[in-house]
Amino acid sequence: MIIYFLIMSFLLDGIMFSLLQPAASLFCLMSLIIVYPYHKTSKEIYIYALILGILYDIAYTNSLFLNTLLFVGSVYLINKIFKTFTSNFLNTFIVSTLFIILYRLTVFGIYLVLNIAGWNFQNIIKSFANSLITNYIFIIISYGILSFISHKFMKKRKIN
User: Fold this and answer.
1) Using CA atoms in the order 92, 48, 64, 116, what is the torsion angle rounded to 10 degrees?
2) What are 30-62's pLDDT values in tens digits?
């Protein structure tokens, strides 16, 4: 179930990447936050983050290993956060907001230092707004679907 969801998120990221402002959607990163409670081992989620990061870099951003490092680093922080807080919708929503902002600031900072793209304050605010709205819609829908599927699966396991 987790692998299918991550693949769907990756493909949906590509669709949104071509429809919206580039990199407005962070569905791969959001999917790692959402599936965190469903992974079996800590090593498993790091492997997912590594693979998603490499694929995201190759397919969508052409920035070698930038997103790979950001995704793996994000999973490390997600792991620390969810060991302290319970995994529920509100906490997932708050953590997702935090990671959208951290991701955007980190990427803008790296691009600014490397002089890859010229950004002004208006572009940054517009990018944040687009990213937050797009990812909030994804979080609400996908969290609901995964919760429904996992509860249905758990009920089915208890019956058998």
Assistant:
1) -10
2) 999 999 888 777 889 999 999 999 999 998 887
Q: How far is Cα 97 from Cα 103, in angstroms, rounded to an integer? A: 10
The number of residues making up the chain comes to 160
Rounded distance between C-alpha atoms, residue 42 and residue 40, angstroms: 7
Instruction: Calculate the alpha carbon distances from 159 to 52, 132, 151 in Å.
Output: 35, 40, 12
Q: What residue type is assigned to position 51 of the chain?
A: I
Looking at residue 21, what DSSP letter applies? S
Q: Are 119 and 112 in contact (CB under 8 A)?
A: yes
String of b and e for 38-57 (b: at least 16 CB within 10 Å)? ebeeeeebbebbeebbebbb
Distance between CA 104 and CA 91 in Å, rounded?
A: 20
Distance CA 64, CA 109 (A): 16
What's the pTM? 0.86
Q: What is the pLDDT of residue 156?
A: 62
Note whether 57 and 14 are within 8 A (CB). no
In degrees and rounded to multiples of 5, residue 137 shows phi and psi of -60, -45
Task: Give the mean pLDDT of 105-117.
Answer: 83
